[in-house]
Amino acid sequence: xxxxxxxxxxxxxxxxxxxxxxxxxxxxxxxxxxxxxxxxxxxxxxxxxxxxxxxxxxxxxxxxxxxxxxxx
Length: 72
Prior knowledge:
Helix content: over 70%
Strand content: under 5%
Shape: globular
Structural class: mainly alpha
Radius of gyration: 12 Å
């Protein structure tokens, strides 16, 4: 049961980050700045460790690619 909750939480976080990234990219923010913003969110809001942040960023890239956002 705990695995399901962790998976669900991870998916929600990735979707939240993808939405933020999409908004920032559509408003003209540079990719490097978007990475920094997402990293700050993960550290301050969820206290994510570096390996988790990298996994989340990779997942966000895949989500955006699937939504035809070719910014990364």
